[in-house]
Specification:
By secondary structure, this protein is of the alpha+beta class. The chain has a single domain, classed as Tubby Protein, Chain A (Alpha-Beta Barrel). 16% of the residues lie in helices and 31% in strands. The chain is built from 5 helices and 14 strands. The longest helix is centred in the C-terminal third of the chain and has 19 residues, at 223-241.
Length: 252
């Protein structure tokens, strides 16, 4: 179902936030138990400096075709619209468009995974693009001039050849990190500017695709780049943590 996006505050909606908790809901889990991939829905909130959770500040809902979700759960094209508040009746903020692409994998010469990002007026903010790699998946966060602003990669060891499974407390069983690096610093320990951490969301994760991600923005980040980094959460979720890929990679 296509939702109409109301006149927007634009990316200024990101201004107050240094971090976001992106929570996938259990929307359509009965539908998924019957074998049909449901639309993906997220509620996005944050915490105050004293650590207290505040109400949902943004809401995201996928727009895609049912048949493609059923046939290509990990690969289908989608649009993800984001509004302020906790439902689609809020003010529009940003939209993300992902074309259908071949599976994620190393050393591809074409058809790399990507998501293009537009503000509420339809103007381009940039895109997230799968980068050429050998062992550790990584993505380029490109600005509107298509030049890399950041590189998104899991923490590495052995000179960048292996994923460092002990980078976060609890290891990959409970916390799966993706670090945000400035170009040229992606293999320098402690040089990450921010991070996305997939957090174990409890019992519901054992039976549904409802995953939780904590997004910590680089310090003094521009609102447009914050929008790009939020889009990388949606892409990572589909590529690495949806049902079929969880089973393939051993996450579920």
């Amino acid at each position: 179902m296509q939702h109409k996006m109301e006149p927007a505050p634009g990316c200024n909606a990101f201004e107050p936030y240094t971090n976001l908790l992106v929570k996938q809901t259990t929307r359509g889990f009965i539908q998924e138990m019957m074998g049909c991939e449901a639309l993906t829905e997220f509620r996005i909130n944050t915490k105050t400096p004293d650590g207290k959770k505040v109400k949902d500040v943004m809401y995201a809902l996928e727009d895609s075709g049912c048949i493609m979700r059923r046939l290509c759960p990990m690969l289908h094209a989608w649009t993800m619209n984001v509004w302020t508040g906790n439902e689609a009746s809020g003010k529009s903020v940003v939209s993300y468009e992902r074309p259908c692409r071949a599976p994620m994998g190393p050393m591809k010469c074409c058809l790399s995974q990507e998501v293009s990002v537009k503000d509420a007026n339809g103007d381009s903010l940039g895109r997230i693009v799968e980068d050429f790699y050998y062992c550790v998946p990584r993505f380029l966060i490109n600005g509107k001039d298509d030049k890399p602003q950041y590189i998104l990669s899991q923490p590495t060891c052995w000179g960048g050849m292996c994923i460092n499974v002990f980078a976060e407390k609890g290891g990959l069983c409970f916390r799966v990190p993706f670090y945000i690096f400035e170009p040229g610093k992606e293999h320098v320990v402690g040089e990450q500017s921010g991070k996305i951490v997939k957090k174990f969301s409890g019992g519901k994760e054992l039976y549904t695709d409802a995953d939780n991600f904590k997004l910590k923005f680089p310090v003094h980040e521009l609102n447009g780049n914050k929008a790009l980094l939020l889009g990388s959460v949606f892409l990572i979720n589909q590529l690495m943590f949806e049902s079929d890929h969880k089973r393939m990679r051993g996450y579920r």
